[in-house]
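STRUCTURE REQUEST FORM
Protein name: Serine/threonine-protein phosphatase
Source organism: Ceraceosorus bombacis
Requested output: structure tokens
Priority: standard
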Amino acid sequence: MALDLDASLSLLRQCKYLPESDIKALCELVKSLLLEESNIQPVQSPVTVCGDIHGQFWDLLELLKVGGEPPETGYVFMGDFVDRGYFSLETFSLLMCLKARWPDRITLLRGNHESRQITQVYGFYDECQHKYGNANVWKSCCQVFDYLNLAAIIDGRVLCVHGGLSPDVRTLDQIRIIARAQEIPHEGAFCDLMWSDPDDVDTWAVSPRGAGWLFGGKVTREFNQINGLELIARAHQLVQEGYKLMHDNGIVTVWSAPNYCYRCGNVASIFQVDDLLDASRSKSLSQSAGIGKSAANDLEAGGVDASEQEDRFGAQHFKIFEAVPDQERTTPARLNLQTTQYFL
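Status: completed
Returned output:
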């Protein structure tokens, strides 16, 4: 019997998880779709780009409310769907169901947490074990992880990737030939795409994460120039203001988990990519996306020059949203949330 995707979506939107047989069927369906997609999945604008979700289910529903529901709105989710939040299972299940229902409107990239090793430490494995009484669903989800896209490219000009760049990757074609159907390696190009971070260094520096690299503005500028890119969009790092442009606006970090770990107090953002990414069409920062004067000041205080953002992109392309209030979300009776340092 075929899986009823609309019925599954209805159930999942209530923050209820699917029966084991249904989620296994969903995993197989999504895996078959991903098998037909490339390492760098081409996407056309308009599309909305999202950062880390980390099992914050109710905030994912808020994101969809703010950004618009599929299929009217297309999405690129840049990984880290699971771990740390209370509802990793329901979150990843909902995203898979949206992908299965509207495969051309939803793109799911792999993050460093879409990994067997990491999910056994930071919550997703334990959550599956608790909810199903076995690890079978976790194993099925991990098989899907292995086929998630490594990156997406929007209109040939905006590259989306979870972490960042690699000294082993100079061209997009070098990403296209990576064998992605495997656990994330501990080093090399695949690992770096998941783990690296932009920083105020010249070229390359050792990452404090213990995986990936720190890369500087020179690296970003050269990579964008060689590959004909206007921008790299990535996630992977908590940004208190929701997003942060760096390296002469050649790279942007998008963070989509508000009040991360239910205690960080940050806002979140989504990035709307369309044909308005032109300086001539930009609006002033204070008039954009509901960001008030206070938030604009915060952005400048955080090291992002507001005038530079206005020149290149216009903050109206970033929609800022806050966490769903506690009284509007459910919390599981048994809490087993990892409170280790956020940067992993």
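Reviewer notes: The domain at 10-163+231-324 is CATH 3.60.21.10 (Purple Acid Phosphatase; chain A, domain 2). The two ends are 40 Å apart (CA to CA).
Form closed.
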